[in-house]
TrEMBL record:
SUPFAM superfamilies: FAD-binding/transporter-associated domain-like, FAD-linked oxidases, C-terminal domain. Its cofactor is FAD. Belongs to the FAD-binding oxidoreductase/transferase type 4 family. Keywords: FAD, Flavoprotein, Oxidoreductase. This is FAD-binding oxidoreductase. Pfam families: FAD-oxidase_C (PF02913), FAD_binding_4 (PF01565). The keyword Oxidoreductase applies. Signal peptide: none annotated. It comes from the Bacteria.
Length: 466
């Protein structure tokens, strides 16, 4: 393959193609924690034509291609193969247009999410996608994994924001679907094939996303509840009282909140301990009305016994303080150590059972284990991270996965709520999808990528891992 990669470099130039031995280590892995792997070559194209040419060459030679964005995924979808090339979209970093009349932003796949958010805000608009990795994740990766985040309860998953895509297929064919209209019902909605496909069907190069008027008013509450049943009743009450103003509803069970608030030194906004902790946020266009609606909800929830204690933020500084523990997972390595992370979806009615059973089963199997549970309960998303202290870097991953994914399957949940399947969940895809569904996915894959060069051995791809 040395001749092939050298030909790539000669064709596209050293600025675009870097050969093995010179590839920076940051491209050898993502956040999944798989063994670092240096690919044959790194391609960093800056134009759609270059992506098309690179893919056409790899298609002809049968060389695997792994697309990479901001490398913030935890499922291994961006993990390289030693016998393939990595294609990074980081140079597709231009925001091409913001149309405040149509409510759209047109941008390259390599634009950092926070950059897009700030650009929209400068125009008085808002991009409704928001995740913890906003400062480093890229739009292409957000769409390729159909990311969720903190505002799904109000604005939906990543796919709910997409109007148009430009995608390059495995053989180099460019699909120009840069639609800017909210209504376009001419034939199949092809963009949906690529959103959430983790780069197995085509590589997203550019996108058109919906924007919303930026609500200037915000009210943030931090509440302590007795148990999960009270949290679910509070969610129902919040939806009824706040309607479309409800923008975030996050829950932290004691396992997560007590451990991380102490471990990080951030402490708690509340006196005493509770059975569950909720961050509730409302946004609107009238500060008094937004604050009033939140206060009325808080008062009624307290009267009805749904809330034991709580505080409302009175400044941006206080808002950030209320979110601090929830946004502390970046401190896991320091506070918790090596871990096995989970991003599952559980029917809301079974959320309490899921948390109780998972934490108990892990403790039964590994008495010293620390299992932390939290998530975006308003959209059925549960995050669990597990650390077995004495195991060090050799965490008993298979045994823990068997427990968590087994309970998730029994409760009718999904093994992936917002981080995709990638390399580390492919053996568990059948826990959440039927054989017929997986077969159909593979049929589509074979039609669009007959040689199987795009992200092989990931997600629903039938290929064997390298």
């Amino acid at each position: 393959m040395t001749d092939f990669t050298k030909t790539l470099q000669d064709t596209f130039g050293e600025k675009v193609v870097t050969l093995r031995g010179e590839i920076p280590e940051k491209y050898w892995n993502d956040w999944a924690g798989l063994p670092a792997t240096e690919p044959l070559a790194l391609a960093r194209p800056s134009t759609t034509e270059e992506v098309s040419g690179l893919l056409a060459a790899c298609h002809a030679a049968g060389v695997p291609v792994v697309p990479q964005g901001g490398l913030t995924g935890i499922s291994g979808a961006a993990h390289p193969q030693a016998d393939g090339i990595v294609l990074s979209l980081e140079r597709f970093d231009a925001i091409e247009a913001i149309d405040t009349d149509a409510g759209t932003i047109t941008a390259g796949a390599g634009v950092i999410l926070e950059t897009a958010q700030n650009a929209a805000a400068d125009k008085g608009m808002m991009l409704g996608i928001d995740i913890g990795a906003r400062g480093s994740c890229q739009l292409g990766g957000v769409l390729a994994t159909n990311a969720g985040g903190n505002t799904v309860v109000r604005y939906g998953m990543a796919r709910d924001h997409v109007l148009g895509l430009e995608v390059v297929l495995a053989d180099g064919t460019v699909i120009d679907g840069m639609n800017t209209m909210l209504k376009n019902n001419a034939g199949l909605d092809l963009k949906q094939l690529f959103i959430g496909s983790e780069g197995l069907l085509g590589i997203i190069t550019r996108c058109v996303l919906r924007l919303h008027p930026n609500p200037p008013a915000k009210a943030t509450a931090f509440l302590g509840c007795a148990d999960t049943a009270s949290v679910i009743a509070l969610l129902r009450a919040a939806r009824g009282a706040l309607g479309p103003m409800l923008s975030s509803f996050e829950v932290m069970w004691p396992s997560f909140f007590h451990f991380m608030s102490k471990g990080t030194g951030l402490g708690s906004p509340l006196d005493g301990e509770h059975g569950a902790y909720v961050i509730l946020e409302a946004t609107g266009f009238d500060a008094e009305a937004t604050r009033g609606a939140m206060e009325n909800l808080f008062e009624k929830a307290f009267e009805d016994g749904l809330v034991e204690d709580g505080v409302l933020a009175n400044s941006v500084k206080e808002e950030r303080a209320l979110w601090a523990v929830r946004e502390s997972p970046a401190e896991y390595e320091t506070v918790l150590g090596p871990l096995v992370p989970f991003d599952v979806g559980i029917p809301i009615a079974k959320m309490d059972e899921a948390v109780t059973r998972i934490e108990a089963a892990v403790a039964d199997a590994f008495p010293t284990a620390r299992s932390l549970s939290y998530g975006h309960i308003g959209d059925s998303n549960l995050h669990v991270v597990v650390n077995v202290p004495e195991a060090g870097r050799a965490q008993p991953e298979k045994e823990i996965k068997k427990i968590v994914y087994g309970i998730t399957r029994e409760l009718g949940g999904t093994v992936s709520a917002e981080h995709g399947i990638g390399a580390i969940k492919r053996d568990y895809l059948g826990y959440s999808r039927t054989e017929a569904e997986i077969a159909l996915m593979r049929t589509i894959k074979a039609a669009l990528d007959p040689k199987g060069i795009l992200n092989p051995a990931k997600s629903f791809d039938a290929g064997m891992a390298a």
